[in-house]
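debug: dumping io for the single-chain case to check the tokenizer round-trip. Nothing else runs in this session.
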Amino acid sequence: MPTVKGVSGLYRFYFYSFDCNEPKHVHVQREKLVCKFWLEPVALSKNYGFSPKGLNAIRQIISSNRNTFLEAWNEHCG
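debug: decoded output
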């Protein structure tokens, strides 16, 4: 599970290698909370425990660092 570098904060952003056949996305974790966001366009795919406020904060981080996430996806998944 490669972690996306260069995005600081409370959350861990990562990919699963077996997900490369899906549309571009990123998984997000904080403690036992997990969610998944599509990157094109930025949209929530799945949520396991984050509050709406937390999801909005994550969406903002992803939107602000979208190029970083897309570069990391392309580097990992080709």
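debug: round-trip ok. Residues 12-77 form one domain.
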